[in-house]
Design brief:
Radius of gyration of chain B: 25 Å
Number of domains of chain B: 1
Number of strands of chain A: 1
Order of helices and strands of chain B: EHEEEEHEEHEEHHEHEHH
CATH topology of chain B: Alpha-Beta Plaits
Strand content of chain A: under 5%
Largest sheet of chain B: 3 strands, mixed
Structural class of chain A: mainly alpha
Structural class of chain B: alpha+beta
Distance between the termini of chain B: 94 Å
Radius of gyration of chain A: 22 Å
Number of strands of chain B: 11
CATH architecture of chain B: 2-Layer Sandwich
Shape of chain A: elongated
Helix content of chain B: 10-25%
Largest sheet of chain A: none
Number of helices of chain B: 8
Order of helices and strands of chain A: HHHHHHHEHHH
Oligomer: heterodimer
């Protein structure tokens, strides 16, 4: 399948944004109250909204007629892509609500937080279901696909939350507010959770890759595609067109598959090993908060590059049954 | 709505006879020709006279070779939308542009609603949908919906362009819900096949398999030397001439 940059950026960024939104909704954290007293959840909620909506903006570039994108909210009864659009908007609305809350402990915040947690989770789940539902792409047609998207969103979200927590700690120091122990514990707790999330995501990714290699084209073969099985082995003798076409450009993508094993290693390095090393460095040593923040920010950026690489492979390595006709 | 109808009153579709198709590409060309002037945006091409011509076509003829031991066969294989009863391309559509008609089962795209996301083309296991490179909307076989009900056309022209033009009579159009239609009878008699049944799309179009070729009626290649046939030993007067010439 053609790995469109717009779609790769979309699923990586919106995954991270909704992951952060879910963490924020669940924990009410990162608590920036000493820093941003008026709207304590404004900064973290905005960070989640910005990440998620920049992803959504990227996805619009995939459309050939973007002016009609509003119609995509209409078919929620049957279409996962439509559900994803609606859930994304709803999740962003709940995060906007959180951003406007003047206190962190009111019942409204708890209700909104729960809504944000559920909606962000569902938004990522429905993104994955767009691919999971396609029987024509056997590599995607598995319950492991939503698990993959959700676990990576959680990992990215927890990592982004640790960055924010460290950032607030820096701000608190600059404003000469005493760096509270609770804040330090929160950074450590989030960093530990992020590490666990990254490990979990890579366990799922490994299982997903293993299944992809095993499943290949599923039950479909050139013989079932043409139903000429009783005449023997089927092979294309005359191509129906002399040059490439939409079908081959979109579904027959093969460029760079020979680099797949190297790219898998790079994805693991950027998306998993380096961020975990960074998280370990922050937790093991007693560095100044600015250094902590810088290391964590770097870890997040490297991690997102790694997720992009794994998403590139998600598309580039997946085979579509139409290629059986070629 | 892009939900599929429970059932359709008629199930219009094609029967394609793989025994008869000679791969002349007339159906491909007439399809392109009709659909560049009929319903919806014209079927566009990019760089049509250049080095890398490409474009949207709704019907393409593949040529396959089947090999079973020493028996090989060539099969011309036209492929277009199969108008599936469980069309996955319809349900994935987020905008409501894709639909399957309740009255006749035709799978269509409402081009005024299509945002060109391409997900329906991904969902189709057969590669029946192609994005128009100029209009940016999804194109697919309409079963020539603008011909079959068109009262401005003579009655004999009210069938899909590919069927109308086929010089070999390899293509048939009709209602699969009517047991007395040509397509139903041909399907029953010749054991019409669904493509990729494992994809659970329940295609309406059927393919009639090629008849079994005769096997092993030719002598074993080891017993027959074509070179011997070409250089036969001369007999009679020619043999004498042959010997005489050798002696000179």
């Amino acid at each position: 399948m053609h790995p469109a940059l717009s779609i790769i950026l979309f699923s990586t960024l919106s995954g991270a944004g909704f992951g952060l939104g879910a963490v924020l909704g669940m924990t009410g954290f990162p608590d920036g109250s000493p820093v941003l007293a008026r709207y304590p959840l404004f900064a973290p909620a905005m960070a989640a909204i910005l990440l998620a909506s920049s992803g959504l903006v990227c996805s619009v570039f995939h459309l050939r007629r973007p002016a009609r994108a509003w119609r995509a909210f209409s078919q929620w009864k049957s279409s996962w892509l439509s559900r994803e659009g609606i859930l994304s908007v709803a999740a962003i609305a709940s995060l906007t609500g959180l951003a406007m809350m003047p206190r962190v402990d009111s019942p409204t915040v708890i209700m909104l937080g729960m809504a944000a947690f559920i909606l962000c989770g569902l938004a990522v789940f429905s993104t994955a279901m767009i691919y999971r539902q396609l029987r024509s792409v056997p590599a995607w047609y598995s319950a492991l696909t939503p698990l993959l998207y959700v676990s990576f969103a959680l990992a990215s979200g927890l990592l982004a939350a640790s960055v924010l927590a460290a950032g607030f700690s820096v701000l608190a120091e600059i404003q000469q507010i005493y760096r509270p122990v609770a804040q330090l514990n929160a950074i450590n707790g989030l960093a530990t959770a992020a590490g666990a999330g990254i490990v979990l995501a890579w366990i799922v990714q490994t299982a997903w890759w293993k299944r992809m290699r095993r499943v290949g084209m599923g039950e479909s073969t050139p013989e079932t595609a043409t139903r000429l099985e009783k005449f023997g082995k089927v092979r294309l003798l005359e191509s129906p067109h002399t040059e490439s076409n939409y079908l081959l450009d979109e579904m027959g993508f093969v460029v760079g598959r020979r680099h797949a094993s190297r790219l898998r290693l790079l994805a693991l390095l950027f998306g998993g090993l380096l961020p975990i090393t960074c998280l370990g460095m922050v937790q093991m040593s007693d560095l100044p908060s600015v250094i902590d923040f810088t290391i964590l920010l770097l870890a997040l950026i490297i991690h997102l590059v790694g997720v992009c690489l794994s998403r590139w492979l998600f598309f580039a390595e997946a085979q579509h049954t139409v290629t059986l006709y070629y | 709505m892009t939900s599929l109808p429970q059932s359709t009153q008629r199930r219009l579709g094609l029967v394609i006879d793989l025994d008869v198709c000679v791969g002349c590409q007339a159906c491909v060309v007439n399809c392109k020709s009709w659909n560049s002037g009929g319903y919806g945006a014209p079927l566009a091409d990019t760089d049509p006279w250049g080095h890398r011509p490409s474009g949207a076509w709704l019907n393409r003829v593949h040529g396959y070779e089947t090999v079973d031991g020493e028996n090989a066969m060539m099969v011309h294989f036209p492929k277009s939308c199969l108008h599936c009863d469980d069309a996955p391309c319809v349900t994935v559509c987020p905008t409501g542009a894709s639909l399957k008609r309740e009255e006749d089962g035709i799978v269509l795209v409402d081009e005024s609603k299509c945002m060109g996301c391409g997900l329906c083309a991904w969902a189709c296991p057969y590669g029946a949908r192609e994005m128009d490179p100029v209009a940016g909307v999804m194109k697919k076989c309409t079963l020539c919906v603008d011909r079959i009900y068109n009262e401005n056309l003579p009655t004999e022209d009210r069938e899909p362009a590919c069927v109308r033009t086929c010089p070999a009579n390899a293509r048939f159009f009709g209602d699969f819900n009517d047991p007395n239609s040509t397509v139903s009878k041909l399907t029953a008699r010749r054991n019409g096949m669904e493509l990729m049944p494992e994809q659970n799309t329940r295609p309406v179009n059927r393919y009639l398999p090629p008849t079994e070729r005769d096997h092993d009626t030719f002598p074993n290649p080891g017993e027959l030397n074509l070179a011997d046939l070409a250089e036969r030993e001369p007999t009679g007067i020619l043999a004498w001439v042959d010997r005489a010439l050798d002696r000179i």
